[in-house]
Amino acid sequence: MRAQKKLRGLGILAVVILNISCDQISKDLVRKNVHPSDYIEVLEHHLILTNVENTGAMLGIGDQLSPTLKIIILQLLPLMVLLALLIRLLQKTGMDYRLVIAFAFVIGGGIGNLWDRVMYGSVTDFFQIKLGVLKTGIFNMADVSISCGMLFILFLIFRQQKIAL
Fold first, then answer.
1. Active site residue 63
2. How many C-beta neighbours within 10 Å does residue 21 have?
3. 27 and 141 Cβ atoms separated by less than 8 Å
4. Scanning 10, 14, 61, 94, which has its CA 20 to 30 A from the CA of 86?
5. Positions of E strands within the chain
6. Cβ atoms < 10 Å from Cβ of 72
7. C-beta of residue 23 within 8 angstroms of C-beta of residue 112
């Protein structure tokens, strides 16, 4: 049983690290190969590659905060939440494995963006999707991890599966 718990913990950490790695590798490639504010059409007006440094949170929210408030709200608070969530995920057994994976995606993406804020003072965003009148904000792979994890969590909850939180 103890070996199974260790294997489960390693699996969780592997999913988290895989998400962080995918995010950081893609951001590094963009920083090195895409000039700031370049506008590269990857898929005929539908997928745009660019390079934007976001000093706030999602869609630039909070970019006008004082440096102290930015550290508290955009670094310390997310760090505490992500660590608490990771510790809870590692300790809680009997949780639906699909929910565990979804939370690991959220944690990995959160750590990816937090790493940027701490190391660079901003988060590198580089993708934008345009489908007719629908247009996303500019985002990165960490945002994809967080969004996919949250959508999967919501899907599982709305399906009313017996999920032990």
1. no
2. 13
3. yes
4. 61
5. 40-43, 47-54, 123-131, 134-135
6. 12
7. yes
Neighbours of 108 (CB within 10 A): 28
Residue ranges of the chain whose pLDDT lies below 50: none
Supply the pTM of this predicted model: 0.91
Say which residues have a Cβ less than 8 Å from residue 99's Cβ, sequence separation at least 6: 153, 156, 163, 165
Nearest CA-CA partner of 21 in 135, 161, 141 = 141
Identity at 14, one-letter amino acid code:
A
Looking up tokens 């959160």 gives: 110
pLDDT for 113 equals 97
pLDDT for the residue 1:
67
The answer to whether the beta carbons of residues 165 and 88 sit under 8 Å apart is no
Catalytic residue among 38, 96, 116, 125: 125
pLDDT tens digits, one per residue of 116-153: 999 999 999 999 999 989 999 999 999 999 999 999 99
Considering the candidates 23, 63, 116, 143, report the single residue annotated as catalytic.
Answer: 143
pLDDT at 15: 98
Strand-pairing partners, residue 135, are 130
The residue type of 80 is M
Specify whether the CB–CB gap between 143 and 124 falls below 8 A: no
Annotation marks residue 38 as catalytic: no
Give the H/E segment covering residue 29: helix 2-33
